[in-house]
Amino acid sequence: MNRDYLLRAADAGKNVRIFLAHTTGAVEEMRRRHNTSATASAATGRLLTAAFLMGADLKGKEDSLTLKIAGDGPVGSIIATADAEGGARAYPLNPEADVPPRYPGKLDVGTLIGNGYLEVIKDLGLKQPFVGRVELVSGEIAEDLAYYFMKSEQIPSLVSLGVLVDRDLRIRRAGGLLLQAMPEADDKILAKIEGNVMQMGPISGVMENKESLEDILAEIMGDIKYEILERRDLTFRCKCSRERLKSILAGFAEEEIRDIYEKEGKLELRCNFCNEVYVYDLDEIYAEKSRKP
């Protein structure tokens, strides 16, 4: 697989819906921008992949989804957001934090995150966004999301998220799977599909050994008839811009702006999500302030 994309599918009997995503490029872009450690790459990459999977359910062009993991482990919090058009972004509070592997070849994401909570915020253009929060079950993220779906949305779900990190810290493979039972689903069908998934092994390894998501989906479904409902490209996409951050900086008090300039010799803002740095001069910010009501 040489591109990031997502499949949305359902079985012919409407027992289950399936979201399957390849996210290697997006997770590598996140790693490159934030210079994350191996375990921080795995943790943030999993949450970024989850945002892509859940973002596929957004309908309106302005709808958005935010996932936040807040734990007491070394990485602190991790935040990922997704839009309705296949874009998502993510960052960890402490990107260089790391912990020893659980065993050779198995990064210890749970220890890096620690105990805390998972928060899901869906802004669907209503008066108030939907906010759901659950305690972390393991800190491994996939289990925590499955617990969230059951606890907050009453949807039985199977979640599999994986990130393979090379020795040079580049992302070798990343992707995820989300299976959700439909109302009045046939338990036998669900059990059969779940059994197929369990036989496949870790999703990151499956991504590495299969040529396409279509091949993986066929293995998941076996002899159960299904339909692919959507294919969409995915990309690491940030909503920041020079103009947007300039407007934020112009909202500071004039005395505060001058104080920053005198101390730093420049006016600089860095976007948390993409790590892009924007530098402004005083005249530029004062001109922006004069345009504000």
From TrEMBL:
It is found in: Cytoplasm. InterPro entries: Heat_shock_Hsp33, Heat_shock_Hsp33_C, Heat_shock_Hsp33_N. GO terms for cellular component: cytoplasm. It holds the Pfam family HSP33. The keyword Cell division does not apply. Under oxidizing conditions two disulfide bonds are formed involving the reactive cysteines. Under reducing conditions zinc is bound to the reactive cysteines and the protein is inactive. One of its GO terms (biological process) is protein refolding. Disulfide bonds join 238-240, 271-274. Keywords: Chaperone, Cytoplasm, Disulfide bond, Redox-active center, Zinc. One of its GO terms (molecular function) is unfolded protein binding. Coiled coil: none annotated. The keyword Cytoplasm applies. HAMAP family: HslO. Redox regulated molecular chaperone. Protects both thermally unfolding and oxidatively damaged proteins from irreversible aggregation. Plays an important role in the bacterial defense system toward oxidative stress. NCBIfam families: PRK00114.1 (NF001033). Belongs to the HSP33 family. This is 33 kDa chaperonin. It comes from Thermosyntropha lipolytica DSM 11003. The gene is hslO.
